């Protein structure tokens, strides 16, 4: 039995106490597991990720990391974020720093690690994503796909326990999607625990151990990818897949 | 124009220019500090102090420097505060410039994309680290163009210092006109003096702007 990594119990969030953005979300992810969250736009996928990372507050519910309850208290929240990394849809790097400076900043300032040690590690990771030659360039000299790969490396350098990926290819040109997804696939092979929000259904099918289908702030279905894409349990998931033309 | 007269009076202009430059540098330096402080207070939304800063900015931006100097030079002695001409000039320029600089930095801060903060926070940085390493450098770079035009504006504003008995460039000029009635020569030398003072600053600013343009995201090709 694999170690439980992240547990989410009865998570609720609303804006102005009216519109329920997240309605009683419960799921868990084991160490080394990959979960893909699918669902129509506005179903709360991205908000859920932001809640897990403490960028958005929650109204009710519990989030546990390795069995320990996460304190969402403001003073402690940055400690949690060291352990739960996140990569965003917009592939922004810090524009005033070179690629290497982008990578070194957080491990240096947050974890107080030695600069040389981080740089060495950063180089290894840059080799893995094929961008070592860009280490002294500024972000504006990189393409969207390249920037997003650097953003993934930047999150990895913090050695997070869990990595949250929020539609990381949605803002990229089609020809760059593949290079970024390739990096994520390889990460999955190395046993990185990941929660991936995506619109790329084929990719979700390939990478995920579990699919979570959400709609209107609720989890409609949790299923194995093979089953989800061939015989989904719920009508809503079926309709969703049909609308995407991926129902086989 | 009487060139020999102009030659004989050049030293007066050099002295005046020195004084102008001296007062302007100190005043502008303080103005930058005040501006930075005010914009950070507003950015961090500190209650009460934020309101005070708001009142100061409106008061400072919407009154002429000449009036502010009169207040310092003629008004304050009435309540027992006696300031020298130079002190008045520096305080006046700081008071005026502080609000302009604050607004320049505020625009810079507002233009830092919100996602930059989220990303930095998601990497585990504290609010202060995010501000120091991510937001502030970008904000400063964003505000350089306005910042530069403010410096030139403040340099030019020093021409009212003569009103509080300071022998700056304007004072020298008015003096020469009064004594010798050489209006054309005196005014010509005044214009040339300001150009000599300001053109290098202007060129320096343009170079600085080019240097910090990295903050313009992605689209612009490498410089």
What is the compact description of this entry?
The complex is a heterodimer of chains A (248) and B (223). Chain A is an alpha/beta fold and 248 residues long.
Could you describe the 3D structure shown?
The complex is a heterodimer of chains A (248) and B (223). With 248 residues, chain A is an alpha/beta fold. Chain A contains 9 helices and 10 strands. In chain A, the strands form 2 sheets. A 6-stranded mixed beta sheet of chain A has the order 6-7-8-3-9-10, sandwiched between helices. In chain A, strand 1 (4-15) and strand 2 (19-30) form a beta hairpin. The mean pLDDT of chain A is 89. With 223 residues, chain B is mainly α. Chain B has a single domain (3-222), classed as MetI-like (MetI-like fold, Orthogonal Bundle), CATH 1.10.3720.10. Chain B has 8 helices and no strands. Chain B has helices spanning 3-44, 49-61, 65-75, 85-110, 114-122, 127-157, 169-180, 183-211. The longest helix of chain B is centred in the first third of the chain and has 42 residues, at 3-44. At the A-B interface, helix 2, helix 3 and helix 5 of A face helix 5 and helix 6 of B.
């Amino acid at each position: 039995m694999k170690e439980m990594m992240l547990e989410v119990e009865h998570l609720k969030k609303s804006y102005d106490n009216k519109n329920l953005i997240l309605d009683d979300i419960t799921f868990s992810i084991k160490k080394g597991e990959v979960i893909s969250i699918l669902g129509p736009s506005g179903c709360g996928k991205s908000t859920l990720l932001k809640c897990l990372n403490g960028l958005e507050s929650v109204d009710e519910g519990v989030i546990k990391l390795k069995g320990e309850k996460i304190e969402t208290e403001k003073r402690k929240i940055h400690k949690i974020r060291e352990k739960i990394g996140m990569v965003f849809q917009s592939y922004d790097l810090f524009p005033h720093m070179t690629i290497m400076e982008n990578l070194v900043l957080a491990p240096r300032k947050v974890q107080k690690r030695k600069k040389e040690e981080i740089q060495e590690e950063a180089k290894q990771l840059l080799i893995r994503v094929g961008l070592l030659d860009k280490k002294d360039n500024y972000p504006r000299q990189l393409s969207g796909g390249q920037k997003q790969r650097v953003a993934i490396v930047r999150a990895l350098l913090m050695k997070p326990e869990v990595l949250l990926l929020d539609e990381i290819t949605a803002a990229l040109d089609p020809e760059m999607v593949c290079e970024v997804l390739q990096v994520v696939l390889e990460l999955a092979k190395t046993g990185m625990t990941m929660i991936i929000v995506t619109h790329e259904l084929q990719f979700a099918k390939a990478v995920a151990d579990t699919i979570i289908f959400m709609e209107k702030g609720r989890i409609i279905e949790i299923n194995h990818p093979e089953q989800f894409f061939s015989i989904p349990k719920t009508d809503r998931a079926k309709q969703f897949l049909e609308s995407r033309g991926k129902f086989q | 124009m009487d060139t020999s007269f102009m030659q004989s009076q050049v030293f007066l202009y050099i002295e005046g220019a020195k004084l102008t430059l001296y007062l302007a540098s100190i005043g502008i330096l303080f103005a930058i500090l005040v501006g930075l402080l005010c914009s950070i207070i507003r950015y961090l939304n500190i209650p009460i102090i934020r309101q005070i800063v708001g009142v100061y900015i409106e008061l400072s931006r919407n009154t002429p420097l000449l009036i502010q100097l009169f207040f310092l030079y003629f008004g304050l002695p009435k309540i027992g505060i006696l300031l020298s001409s130079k002190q008045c000039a520096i305080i006046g320029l700081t008071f005026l410039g502080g609000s302009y600089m604050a607004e320049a930095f505020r625009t810079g801060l507002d233009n830092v994309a919100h996602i930059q903060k989220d990303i930095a926070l998601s990497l585990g940085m504290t609010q202060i680290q995010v501000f120091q390493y991510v937001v502030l450098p970008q904000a400063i770079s964003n505000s350089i163009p306005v910042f530069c035009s403010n410096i030139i504006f403040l340099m030019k504003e020093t021409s009212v210092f003569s009103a509080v008995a300071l022998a700056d460039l304007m004072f020298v000029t008015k003096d020469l006109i009064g004594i010798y009635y050489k209006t054309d020569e005196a005014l010509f030398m005044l214009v040339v003096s300001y150009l000599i003072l300001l053109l290098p600053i202007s060129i320096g600013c343009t170079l600085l702007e080019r240097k910090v343009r990295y903050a313009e995201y992605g689209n612009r090709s490498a410089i």
